């Protein structure tokens, strides 16, 4: 029996298998509104056979977008734009759907990646003043962000909760709070970007306080049937920054607060990072956190081969495997994994005629 294709409970949500399609920004929205690209893109991924699809980082405020072309969920117009996208998916797929709620902080107001990805220049009509825990830019050539005051922090917490309620009303079954990759909640966690001397900075407890306040607000805003978890960067890969020991401390606190899962990535906060990239390079981080918590742990990071993914969950390094770039390259990755591991997968009847090209008996 394949462990990768066994069921997994993330709190109230049970996944049919342990393959998670990780959030990947598409930079294809208009005024924060999802559109035809998202309908096509997510409709295809929902036919992949994965256990869970988490849609891209979705901004809880207009200023929380990475670029002017990012999706949002900060008002009812944004929610209305998601309606037809989700309706199309639901017509043809029963795959569990999650959404990642996010704020980019000082890494906002940027060009799309294929346009260079740099922060928009002062005076560019598509840009805005970014927010951060402290007035420290991400890159030396960036404009300094505005350090958030108490009112801005209170508004952020409220906006995360409001976006979570909209996500629930849309029928999403899972919310992932984005506290990774150098975005705003990660910026508050790391002493490299958070130099505050008030209750939101300084000690580890103070630097964790905003993420915990957001988590508590989101969990209180939605029904018990909604799975709520957090994605973190377990280390900045920079001396003196956020690291694994602090991540373990955070994970323990989240676990005690009823977090349903933790999704373990790394990096993204500081240009000085030195990342030892290679197959499964982030697995030791996920495994160390898993040893300290009860909640399920999702591992991600160049896990591209089915046998590797199977070994990750079979040996207890993590409870599930996140696939990102690999499933962009091969949107039927779970089918190929099932074939390699001798497992049957459910497939929509429109696609069953391709079974002879795969493996007889593969499709359930």
Automatic annotation (TrEMBL):
Residues 4-338 form the NADH:flavin oxidoreductase/NADH oxidase N-terminal domain. SUPFAM superfamilies: FMN-linked oxidoreductases. GO terms for molecular function: FMN binding; NADP binding; NADPH dehydrogenase activity. It comes from the Bacteria. InterPro entries: Aldolase_TIM, OxRdtase_FMN_N, YqjM-like. The keyword Oxidoreductase applies. Keywords: Flavoprotein, FMN, NADP, Oxidoreductase. It holds the Pfam family Oxidored_FMN. This is Oxidoreductase.
């Amino acid at each position: 029996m394949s462990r990768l294709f066994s069921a997994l409970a993330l709190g109230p949500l049970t996944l049919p298998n342990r393959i998670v399609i990780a959030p990947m920004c598409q930079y294809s929205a208009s005024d924060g509104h999802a559109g035809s690209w998202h309908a096509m893109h997510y409709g295809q991924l929902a036919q992949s056979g994965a256990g869970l699809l988490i849609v891209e980082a979705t901004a809880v405020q207009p200023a929380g977008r990475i670029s002017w072309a990012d999706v949002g969920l900060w008002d009812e117009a944004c929610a209305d734009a998601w309606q037809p996208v989700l309706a199309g998916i639901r017509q043809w797929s029963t795959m569990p759907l999650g959404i990642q709620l996010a704020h980019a902080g000082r890494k906002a107001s940027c060009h799309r990646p294929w346009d260079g990805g740099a922060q928009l220049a002062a005076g560019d009509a598509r840009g805005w003043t970014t927010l951060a825990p402290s007035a420290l830019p991400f890159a030396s050539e960036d404009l300094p962000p505005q350090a958030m005051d108490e009112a801005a922090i209170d508004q952020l917490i409220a906006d995360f909760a409001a976006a979570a309620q909209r996500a629930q009303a849309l029928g999403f079954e899972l919310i992932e709070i984005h506290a990774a990759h150098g975005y705003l909640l990660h910026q508050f966690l790391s002493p490299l970007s958070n130099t505050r001397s008030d209750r939101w900075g300084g000690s580890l407890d103070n630097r964790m306080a905003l993420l915990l306040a957001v988590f508590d607000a989101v969990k209180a805003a939605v029904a018990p049937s909604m799975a709520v978890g957090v994605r973190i960067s377990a280390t900045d890969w920079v001396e003196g920054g956020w690291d694994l020991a602090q991540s373990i401390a955070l994970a323990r606190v989240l676990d005690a607060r009823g977090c349903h899962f933790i999704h373990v990535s790394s990096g993204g906060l500081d240009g000085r990072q030195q990342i030892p990239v290679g197959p499964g390079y982030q697995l030791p981080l996920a495994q160390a956190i898993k040893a300290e918590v009860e909640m399920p742990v999702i591992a991600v990071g160049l896990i591209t081969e089915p046998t590797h993914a199977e070994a990750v969950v079979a040996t207890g390094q993590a409870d599930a495997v996140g696939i990102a770039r690999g499933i962009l390259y091969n949107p039927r990755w779970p089918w190929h994994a099932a074939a390699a591991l001798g497992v049957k997968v459910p497939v929509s009847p429109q696609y069953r005629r391709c079974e002879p090209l795969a493996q007889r008996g593969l499709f359930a």
